[in-house]
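Bit of a strange request maybe. I'm writing a small parser for structure token strings and I need a real example to test against, not something I typed by hand. Could someone generate the tokens for this chain?
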Amino acid sequence: MDAAWHIAPALQARQPEAAALLAITNGHAWSAVPPTLLELVRLRIALLIGNEAGLRRRSKPALAAGLSEAKIAQIGHYPSSPDFTAVEKACLAFTEQFVIDVSSLTADNRAMLQPHFADAALTEFVMALYVTECTQRLEMVAPLLLDTPAATPPVRADDTRFTGLLPAMDAYQASVVRGTALDAVTTEMVRLRCARTHNCRFCRTLRLEDSAAAGVDDAMTAKIDFYERSDLAERTKIALRITEAFITRPDTLTATVINQARAAFSPAELTEMLLDITKWSTQKFHVAMGLDAADSLPKNELGVSFFSFDGEGRVAGFAAAPGALG
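Reply from user aminoacidic:
Good idea to test on real output. This should exercise your parser:
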């Protein structure tokens, strides 16, 4: 395992399939992107989100490829440092915007990267960026909300079932969707909090069919942006507090919210919630790549489209009315 990334033992014990697939996906990310470049990206992310443990680790392949501690020490000054190449500067600038406010990335930002990547390589870089970010966020939040089992075998990333990064990520996301611990209302409110924060046009347009059947309506979803001042159920507010900290600054998750979460949700529910946040946050990849248009979706008179997942955890289809997908 590349010691530069870490899967929390608490996740490995409670969701072994998803944890293993996330490890495999990380392995493919480090194969898809030159290790020195991805290590600089990883460390910049760690600085931005306050991941102190991540800052202390180093990628062995990156060090073997010549990345020095002197260069790492200058990462906060990369725009003016002569030690950073043009591609490293472009990727680090893109990374900063991706982490801080992905919705502000434009075609011009992507154009700055394109001279350095072929089309497929650019796609893989942005996906690897997402994987590296969400894994670090999980690393920080999971131990705060979940007790770590006494003995958990480490997950392995040397799985040969997948031919590349994108298929591995697809399998990881499908495994997360197959979870059944978290109720439909919380799942949908968490998903939409992610969509609104990342300003993913596609996901903001969507509503989960089973959540609509469970009572999530437009009046409820309209309260997400000001949930603390709303009359939403306290359980929902706690889930939104966790989501907000996870996708912005995980190091701001307070002891009060942690205690609230442990009282309101079971360990199985919290585990699924955290994994769900990583799955829904794939929105960031689509927003960053300009792939979040919702024009093709069938919509009702309010501009909303309904969707569901099949038994394998993949999207079963879209419809303008709930219940139309069977």
